[in-house]
Design a protein that fits this description.
5 strands; alpha/beta; about 20% strand; elongated; Nucleotidyltransferase, domain 5; 3 helices; about 120 residues
């Protein structure tokens, strides 16, 4: 009986350790190195400025219209990549909303960074 108890405790420890390694709700984000001089493959740019105004390319859009515009512009493009430019003062919730649009439509997304800044 004591060997059975040891086995149960070993299994319990094993499952506790392996369950902490699994993260099913992780957001996959491609972050380019800021010291890299190689431009990232870009299909379209989405920007959010400090006043929480959304831009697709150079045009300003309301948040509700961004998903439709991205679907229109990326309709026939395989492996579409969106470069997300966000002002550093913008709260994270607005960034996550745009990332959610990309996730729903299975677009790849890259978060743009300024070279040499940390």
């Amino acid at each position: 009986m004591s060997s059975m108890t040891d086995l149960v405790f070993l299994l319990l420890i094993f499952f506790m350790i392996t369950s902490t390694l699994v993260s099913p709700n992780a957001i996959k984000l491609f972050l380019p190195s800021s010291s890299s001089k190689t431009p990232s493959p870009q299909t379209i740019a989405v920007s959010i400025d400090k006043d929480i105004k959304y831009y697709v390319g150079d045009k300003e859009f309301q948040f509700e219209a961004i998903e439709g515009e991205l679907l229109t512009q990326l309709a026939n493009i395989k492996d579409a990549t969106i470069v997300l430019n966000v002002d550093k003062s913008v709260p994270t919730e607005y960034l996550v909303k745009v990332m959610d649009i990309a996730n729903r439509n299975q677009f790849k997304m890259i978060l743009a960074t300024a070279p040499g800044q940390q």
